[in-house]
Amino acid sequence: MNDRIFRSINELAGSSRFVDFIMVTLSKRTRYVYLFVLLLLLFQAKFNKRKTLIAGVTLSITYLLSMLMKRIFYKPRPFLKQAVHLLPPVPSRKDSSFPSKHTALAFAMSAFVFVYHRTWGLGLWLLSLLVGISRIWMGQHYPSDIVGSAILGNITAFVVKFTEKYWRPFLERTLHSYSHFRISSRQIQD
Fold first, then answer.
1. Which of 60, 92, 113, 185 has a CA that sits 20 to 30 A from residue 51's CA?
2. Domain around 114
3. Cα–Cα distance between 122 and 140 in angstroms, integer?
4. What are 45-92's pLDDT values in tens digits?
5. Can you give the pTM of this predicted structure?
């Protein structure tokens, strides 16, 4: 079933230059949308620097877990096993298909935003789903890779959020150290 779903999506690649452009753009440039939303939230009154640091922790853990999983659960990419419609950029042949780092990070950010702003979070989840589909469209991942990556990103974001009380002392020390460093730097410059 995984191969059948992959083929039904991937065989559409190359049939429309416009749709191919959208899929490649979704895959390569969506990270800027997430960054923009995070910046918008940062400047809202209810959002603060600590939450931005929690987003950083969420994304860092998701990234590290996905890199670890790529090494442990190596799975050849679709274009190594069969003829596919492969759209650039072509990944390294040594890189595992599972998990999709793009998709895991997209869903982690979406889940993080959802915790604080439901409407924006739902919109980002939809965008994350499109990122996952674009990875299949481009011939780089199987549907099971995308589903697993979505689960990884969502679970990581919610675990980080629900264990925030354990992260809070570290984050507060980091913010305090940063503020102290900035004040010391200004005093030296003056």
1. 185
2. 2-189
3. 25
4. 666 667 777 888 899 999 999 999 999 989 999 988 888 988 887 776
5. 0.85
